[in-house]
Amino acid sequence: MEVRELAVEGAVEFTPTVFPDERGLFVSPFQSAAFEKAVGHRHFRAAQTNHSRSARGVVRGIHYTATPPGTTKYVYCARGSALDIVVDIRVGSPTYGKWDAVLMDQVDFRAMYFPVGVGHAFVALEDDTVMSYMLTSSYVAADELALSFHDPELGLPLPEGTEPVMSARDLAAPTLAEARAAGLLPDYAACRALSR
Q1: CATH value at residue 10
Q2: Phi/psi of residue 118, each to 5°?
Q3: 63 given a catalytic annotation
Q4: Which pairing describes strands 144-146 and 59-65: parallel, antiparallel, or unpaired?
């Protein structure tokens, strides 16, 4: 398992070894030992798993969980391909306002770890793209918030030729500056405390 720290503090990319043969292939997108070594947590305790299927051009996010309670995510692409994006929205973070993107596909089977308090978005690059998530807390609608993917201050990448398909909720989401002014963003110190 190859590990790479991303531009957002605490976010990590994992690239597992793929074992192809005449039957197809085998891959293990999450491996506890590699995760513990890279992230420093003793283990990832999943409280819920999520599965989404998207058509080409679908943009989901930027989504995040209010902190507290906060949650961490481990995400990989089970089918198709997507540009997966982590955004640092934690007020006081050394990488506040920065983002990084990882191509998730059926070649390298990369996965990403999202620490407490960061934002998550992705762009589906082909039809029937399936994203699989493990989360450390259960879904509570009132705790799930969104920011504008099109915020010019962030400048998130949208692959050329992509006509974004978005939910009404995501289209109406505030910018990073608007959410900060409204007191809706997570505090970095609180996020770090919840990560221990």
Answers
A1: 2.60.120.10
A2: -90, 165
A3: yes
A4: antiparallel
Active-site residue (options: 74, 133, 139, 150):
133
Distance CA 118, CA 99 (A): 10
Domain that holds residue 157: 2-195
Instruction: Exactly one of 43, 63, 76, 139 is catalytic; name it.
Output: 63
> How many of the other CB atoms lie within 10 Å of CB of 7?
12
**Dihedral (CA of 28, 34, 40, 43) sign:** positive
Specify whether the CB–CB gap between 19 and 26 falls below 8 A.
yes
Q: Judge whether 133 counts as a catalytic residue.
A: yes
Q: Is the pTM of this model over 0.90?
A: yes
Amino acid at the residue 24: G
Per residue in 34-54, pLDDT tens?
Answer: 999 999 876 688 999 999 999
Domain count for the chain: 1
